[in-house]
Amino acid sequence: MNQFSHISPEGDPAMVDVGAKAVSRRTARARSVVVLNEEIMTHFAGQDIATKKGPVFQTAIIAGTMAAKRTDSLIPLCHSLGLDNCRITIHTEGLTAVVECIVSTEGKTGVEMEALVGASVAALTIYDMCKAFSHDIVIQETKLMEKTGGKRDFNRDK
Fold it and tell me: Where do the domains of the chain lie?
């Protein structure tokens, strides 16, 4: 049976020792889905939602990028990683905003958490900026879509 990697032999929380691992190219893509409503979408113009706080999606992209870069400050046992790239995109499908965060690095550990944190914080920023219009907003899901590098790759079909 697999053991939890963040538990020491004594049963205490522990950061995984990646010192002996080889450096390799690591990528991850995460998605968050935010369900809005018609009242909010009446403010959708061009490719964004206009609010008094500013453009919702553009602000969410910046917030998600900042969060991905600071994942180690938010998730206690994550390693500090210098990201080579972080790209967040947001598009709508009807009343739904789909956030995707793709991150990459050359390192000894994966970037799944950075992608998940980036997508999550972008989704939370959409909520924060749209709640003045309506609180009927649901962050439906956040999930890892794919990762490469390390022991095994992962790819989730839509």
Answer: 24-148
Residue 158 exposed, middle or buried by CB count within 10 Å (0-12, 13-18, 19+): exposed
Q: Which structure tokens are listed for 112?
A: 């799944």
Task: Find the range with the poorest average confidence among 14-28, 93-107, 108-122, 125-139.
Answer: 14-28
Pick one of 3.30.70.640, 1.20.210.10, 1.20.272.10, 2.30.33.40 as the CATH number of 24-148.
Answer: 3.30.70.640
Q: Which residue type occupies 9?
A: P
Q: Which of 99, 97, 100 is closest to 137 using CA atoms?
A: 97
Report which of residues 21 and 119 the model is more confident about: 119
Q: Which residues are catalytic?
A: 128
User: Which of 140, 157, 150 lies closest to 113, judged by CA?
Assistant: 150
- Summarised one tens digit per residue, pLDDT across range 31-73 is 999 999 999 999 998 899 988 889 999 999 999 999 999 999 9
- Contact yes or no for 88/64 (Cβ under 8 A): yes
